[in-house]
Specification:
It is a single chain. Helix content is 55%, strand content 8%. The protein is built from 13 helices and five strands. The strands form two sheets. It has a three-stranded parallel β-sheet. A two-stranded parallel ribbon has the order 4-5. It binds adenosine-5'-tetraphosphate. Residues 9-10, 12, 18-19, 22-23, 146-147, 149-150, 184, 186-187, 196-200 line the site of adenosine-5'-tetraphosphate.
Length: 333
């Protein structure tokens, strides 16, 4: 079978440069590789945190606009919502019955999210990685391009696939490989270099959104936390905020952190921040304009793209689910 790529974003708010450099930019570039591509808007996952119904529906459309504005081409990739393809939820149940609790107890994202917000203690958040395994295994994905924070979940999907294959005595599921972007594997907050840049962080100054204006990007980078050590040195351990800015610059320019360090060694923090702002504006401005155009004027077009994608996704997912039901002893028809 040819290579098949699957990935997704939770429609939980405005996308930021971590989502772009860490995940979506890889998806767009990979469209030319000859692989089959499935890009999902994982709206069932978004229900794991409290969300107003109208805001969630809007966020789904906004995320679809962002995918297209970032270069995902519906002629080359299947773009779809998770919830209309009911096979995701159905396979999740079957996989959940075969996933030891100990495996889920190791998941760091659940621990981090529930520690940060004590209200978040629902079963859905706990079993989130099993739904994610279903998302991936339904499509026999060979490669899953994600940020580093999701790598542990892909490893769990691999473990579940191997365990189920062993249990039913056949190669029911393809074993997926994670693909993590190098410099942008983990883009950190602009306020705290030890925290991941995140859509749901309370301060908008912690992230660069894909819809930020040029002025907002300028002010956010100008106010981004650094330290009092003179000069620009790449030292992630002792200078996490400066190292983060260097890595963002490297990701935006396609160079390594040491090349950035060499280029700006003698420059002051403000000259480096100006150069970084220019790089970010060059990447974000066309995406921002595309999102605005598609989201404001193209809602019918976005829904048509999603519905067409859902038709294609259902064909593949339906076939896999029938095979799984057969293998585990359920009536497949
Ligand atoms: N800071 C990041 N650096 C690199 N990659 C990142 N990703 C997310 N944040 C960063 C990658 O983007 C894809 C979509 O992520 P998601 O929205 O489904 O969920 P998330 O990982 O939980 O992202 P956020 O922004 O932190 O969202 P909230 O605040 O809603 O939880 C994934 O491939 C992810 O790795």
């Amino acid at each position: 079978m040819s290579e098949r790529v699957l990935s997704g974003v939770q429609p939980t708010g405005r996308l930021h440069i971590g989502n772009y450099y860490g995940a979506i930019r890889q998806w767009a570039a990979g469209q030319e590789s000859g692989a089959e591509n499935f890009f999902c808007i994982v709206d069932l996952h978004a229900l794991t945190v409290p969300t107003a119904p109208e805001a969630l529906r809007e966020s789904v459309l906004y995320t679809a606009a962002a995918y297209l504005a970032c270069g995902i081409d519906p002629q080359k990739s299947v773009v779809f919502r998770q919830s209309p393809v009911a096979e995701h939820a159905e396979l999740q149940w079957i996989l959940g019955c075969m996933t030891p609790l100990g495996w889920l107890n190791r998941m760091t994202q659940f621990k981090e999210k529930t520690q940060r917000d004590k209200q978040l203690n629902c079963l859905g958040l706990y079993s989130y990685p099993v739904l994610m395994a279903a998302d991936i295994l339904l499509y026999h994905a060979t490669r899953v391009p994600v940020g580093e924070d999701q790598k542990q979940h892909i490893e769990l999907a691999r473990d579940i696939a191997l365990a189920v294959n062993g249990r039913v005595g056949q190669e029911l599921f393809t074993i997926p490989e994670p693909a993590v972007a190098r410099e942008a594997a983990r883009v950190m907050s602009l306020r705290d270099g030890r925290e991941k840049m995140s859509k749901s962080a309370p301060s908008d100054y912690s992230r660069i959104n894909l819809t930020d204006s040029d002025d907002e990007i300028f002010f956010k980078i100008a106010r981004a936390k650094t330290d009092s050590i003179p000069g620009l040195t790449y030292d992630p351990e002792n200078r996490p905020e400066v190292a983060n800015l260097i890595r963002i610059y490297a990701a935006a320019s396609g160079v390594t952190p040491s090349q950035v360090e060499a280029e700006y060694e003698g420059a002051g923090a403000s000259a480096f921040k100006h150069a970084l702002t220019d790089r970010l504006v060059a990447d974000v401005a066309p995406i921002r304009d595309g999102i605005r155009r598609l989201y404001d004027d193209g809602r019918a077009h976005l829904l048509a793209v999603l519905r067409e994608g859902e038709g294609k996704a259902r064909e593949v997912a339906g076939r896999t689910l029938r095979e799984v039901k057969e293998a585990v002893g359920l009536w497949a028809e």
